[in-house]
């Protein structure tokens, strides 16, 4: 008999737990001390500066390790390393031209 009563009250119990959780969440939100506009902009600026510092640090490490591995691979002179100056579209244009000029061959369906 007790099992049947628990099964019947499952939805009631779930609803009361959800309502209790909503009440406690609402009371906790009231306790939050929100930052002022000045504090918000100050903290945002600090975060952006930290991100930039870390980005520059990672860029420097990447460059140093890149040159180090190039040296280990036998490229002893830094001027031997080819740096792309501009993007070449010649290969793309040639491929598209070949596709446009290609003949369409259709095989009869079996």
Question: What can you tell me about this protein's structure?
Answer:
With 110 residues, the protein is mainly alpha-helical. The protein has a domain at 38-76. Helix content is 69%, strand content 0%. It contains four helices and no strands. The chain is flat and about 70 Å long. The N and C termini lie far apart (72 Å). The mean pLDDT is 78.
Question: What's a concise summary of this model?
Answer:
By secondary structure, the protein is mostly helical. The chain is built from four helices and no strands.
Strand content: under 5%
Order of helices and strands: HHHH
Shape: flat
Poorly predicted regions:
none
Distance between the termini: 72 Å
Specify the biggest β-sheet.
none
The class by helix and strand makeup works out as: mainly alpha
Averaging pLDDT over every residue, what do you get? 78
Helix content: 55-70%
Quickly count the helices: 4
Please state the CA-atom Rg, rounded to the nearest Å: 33 Å
Number of strands: 0
